[in-house]
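the two lines:
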Amino acid sequence: MILDSVFFNYQDLEVLKGVYLEVEQGSITCLIGRNGSGKSTLFKIAAGQLHTDNGITRFRDKRLHRASKKERFEHLAYLPQKSFLPTSLKVNELINEGDFNKDDIIQRVKDSNIKNLSTGERRYVEILFVISLNRDFLLLDEPFTGLSPILIEKIIEHIKAVKKQGKGVLISDHYMRYIVDVGDTFYLLENGQVKAIDSE
Amino acid sequence: MKRLAYKILLKKYFLIDMGVLLLLIVLPIYVNPGDVLSIIQRAILYSGFITPAISYFEIKNSNQLPFYDNLNVSIFPPYLSVLIIKMLLSFSIGHYV
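prediction for all of em together
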């Protein structure tokens, strides 16, 4: 997946100034940057949640100019920064309908409503939901927020398993310690532009 | 999984719709208890436009749009279907009753 020449202005502020970013299949790409640097904005544009007239998203040979969510979500699954599962939903309903990893944590919370889960449990269920969609690319915007170190370790195992299946993962988070461990390629978003940085 | 998304979407729609219909029927009858049938006919028709708007903004404000996007479920076709059914129902009440 390639994001090319992405510009985005918020009122008079130039948030993204011609960003180029490449996510390869079978690899984990990490996007790092300060708070407010535009990481989530870039994720939203990639997932068709934000409209911008400039910029192209490419999936293999297919070029998408406009938001075109339907085409994008044939290829990708998106974990937004904020909690997004309907609160009335039961974990059991998700498990029964999808290709869900039924590990010990899911077994423990399966009879609960999403609204009754702790922040960490809810995030964990959301990440497994996104993985269960089985798309070629995963966009994970701050997946570790609100998770305990044990849950983070578990999530990292899931992300590595996704990579082994030949899928591409784009991830951003403040937990640099975990990001450095999990990533293959690193990009720094600074002053509205992206620079590839050496993983060493 | 899409089936589940539609189920949640329609459940939310009908919960909001109950409130909207109740308001659109009870308030006019309370203010001016005249032609009840005509009030019901208009309430069904107007709610077909009002409920989707409320429902959409409720989903958007609670950040749940990515749930439907991830499942590639567009929320507008179900709203449009219900609107058409309501229009037919409303015109039928006016025409046949």
